[in-house]
Amino acid sequence: MASTYDAAEGGTSIREALRALRNAPIPSDEMRLSIVESAGPALELTPADATPPRLEAAASIEGDLLSVRSVGEPVAAFAAFLDGIQASQVILRGRAGAPVVHGTVAAVVRRRSDRILHVWRGAPRIARALYAPVSLIGTRELEWLRSTRMEIVDTFADCDAALARHPMELLALARTAVQRRREELEIALAESWCASEAEPLFVDGGISGAGRASQSMFAVGVVKSHRTLYATGGSLTVVTGLEAGARTTSFEIRSPRRTTVASWYLRLRDARGRDPFFGLVRVEIARESWSAERADEVSRWVLAERAPVSLPDKRWSTMAYGIRDCEEYLRALVGA
Amino acid sequence: MEDRKRKADDGSNFSTGSSVFHLPSSIVLSILGRVVATERKPNTPHEFHFWTALDSPVGIGTIVRVESAQPVNGVLPVVYGVVVEGFGYTDVETPLHEVLGYDGEPGGDAGAPTRRTEIRLYSAAVLRHVPEEPLQPVSMGTVHLASDEDVAVALRMDAYLTPGSSTGIPVGLYRSGATSSPVWLDADFLLGPEAAHLNISGVSGLATKTSAVEWLLASIFAHFPAKKGRVAAVCFNVKGPDLCFLDQPAAKLDDADRALYDRLGVPAEPFKDVEYYAPYTAKGYALNTLRSNDALAHNVKPLTWGLREVLQYAEVLLNKDDVDAKADALIDFIKERVVDQEFSDPKYLTAVHRVQSFGELERWFRDLLTGMEKQNAESWRTHHVATIRKVRNRLTNISTRCRGLVTDDGTVSDLPFGQFRDRAVYVVDVANVEADAQDLIFSRIVSTLREHLEKRDLGVEHVIVFVDELNKYAPSDGPDTYVRAMLLDIAERGRYLGLVLFAAQQFRSQVHRRVVGNSGTALFGRMDPDELATPGYATLSPATRTKLSTLEKGQLMVRHPHFSQPVFVRFPRPAVLSGREGVERFPQAVEQTLDEAVTRALRTLDRTVTLEWVKDSIALADEEEVLRARNRTIQAKPDDVKAFFRGQLKRRVRAEPVDAKPRTPLKTAPTDDPYGF
Question: Which domains are delineated in chain B?
Fold first, then answer.
């Protein structure tokens, strides 16, 4: 049985990778790599050093000050949903504790037809690879790894390999590399959609880094986490005090390495008596496509995705069911 | 669905979100589902699970084929199964989540733009593995709707549907989706000798039991292989007019029914050769049957027995409390030494007796007891006078209890034992007869059939005996009766003789286990839920039991030795007139006078007999004598009916007017007689 994603594209699963490594002849006793007895917990489940929450000012593009607008009744308009998942586990360790991580990333667009979601264009994007600090594991070890024909990604690619590294920092680098790979898949899918379809796509997360999709009128990014809040002073009260079905006025988000997008906060569910971020999302659309009416319209689309709820996912107050469906689909497919 | 089809037509490698194999588009389209196994719900050699699209035509009872991609011993296994359970669920973890999702408003669905992910998961019981060995758990594979050929293989019908030597008897049509396949029973396992007997269960009034038997008899008559011998049926009509019009065409048989008959190769027509038998009413004038309309009288015959016939089965009517060992010995003595022979005992009897009827037996008893009283004897040939009185009382009482069936004069009109015809149906109407008489009729006819089959002189090699209300004749509890013992004997040994029991009842659980257990084939119509809750149905899945309790008219669940799991089939309406319609179309004859009853009976033998002629013939005879003459005439079937009938009546001199003679006048006194007054 051949899988739809061949090995060259999808790569080797963690079980197959471990089997391949155990079967690969070790060239010498001086080998400085040891295979873990069993794959540990996914790195995504271990606590990470998160950047501290922060407030950031953003330039308003809809009036002078951030204020509240009612958006009207929900309207179902999204034709598809895009999301990705990742899973990474340490499968080898060098003598200095340098981890070799097996990472699986996948992304999919699920198109809605007659209220049922199907995979868009037949197949998800899946990629599996080994993520290793190449300069720390030695030439012979690297050659041995390459003999297994698995793709190897250098986690030092974007940083100075000469600096001494704490093993936990090496793990964080690996996880970041895996995440970057996932984002690449998601961006590719988003661009592909925007290039070929003329219907709105619900993207999980921001679109400012989504290449050409960030400039398309068909990509709508919905951000669920708010470690960075684009509100300061009195604007913060406006955001946290938003009522269900209302949005803030829009603002621009600029970033040196990302595309400028238009954004606003939208309250999906009544948060009275709850956390101020309950049901709060930030919507991003292409700056060029923005208008106040367009922001209202897109807000109505996002509001429509409140049902059905995404329970039992812990993020259910802000997660659209279509996004949960993407994640469940990918988890079932890649076992992540 | 359209999307799925379009993509499959494109030859793409993804037909649905979970179809992860490269397959030709034609195969992808025929795939109904995929086998799935988890640690909590593993597959076994006898059960597997599969999921389907939401709009798949799968239901409880659907037969499917699993094609595995994993070869075993170099062969790709194929597994056939029948769906026995279905599950459907969504990704909602608890009902509370759903309530939250709708904000507690059940009507809030309209706004949900996406339907929740939903699954249709089915459990199937394995019908057959190909190859049969090694017997392994069902492996992962694609699931397809069974085709005609698949159904034949799955139910192992391929073993007995060999062209030229088929022993298949169609029982109905299996339908699922576009599949519509005949289901065949194996005659060797339905009528013997490998297995035999049929048991039908179902609630009353839903066209299950009687209709199914009428249909199956027609099917047997159409398909039973000639080389297996001749076959006839004896049906006991135990209630209403159910079986009284088997030779009349159905009032309504729609195109769908005719299509079923065509598909199953059975002519949609009533039975061609049917004879009806019924005892007389207590009054003795007319036959005790709802088939009394003049237009149908030609094949209705009386069922009457005399002393000899009844004595053989006296124990059916005399229970153990009535007849102790002493009485039993006297009855045996009478059977062996008194009946049908000249018997004399000069010491006690005043005459030589030849006992051939209940009337003559009564005279024999009376003579004997009088003789004993005269001699003040307490016993006769070791039999105590009290025993003799008791046996006299019980035996002579039989003719009273079974009036209409048992004749005092010994006249016998019986089924044509020894001359049974191939593909003929003999209906014995006992619907309006007392329970005792029903038992007697049933016991004697079945026992006589058995005797003739043992001697191979019945006229046919196989006889199907149909009896309804089996829970009455062979109950699971209650006293051990002669009838039950006889039914047990047939169930256990009848197949070797060609004596096959087709029995029906509402509650199978109330029938003796050995009777139902020996039925090779079982049919189930719509069942009562309480009955389905009894242990006998524990092997059926809850879904199958639910389906059984909601079956439509014309649907059956079939168990057969070749089928490793029960299957559901549909059968056509019987092509015969139903009892209810028959009674309306052929109203019962009004109660007759003696003259009319005799006229009607004799006209079946001689159409020239008229009411006037009968009135004239019986004018001087008493009623008992007339009935006896009628019975003997019917029994003898003489060439000259009129002469024979008159010959049975006592000769009497008809009163004739005396010729008028001139009266001699009294002498008158002389007018000159001085003493005259």
Answer: 2-145 (no CATH), 176-303+413-582 (3.40.50.300), 308-401 (no CATH), 592-648 (no CATH)
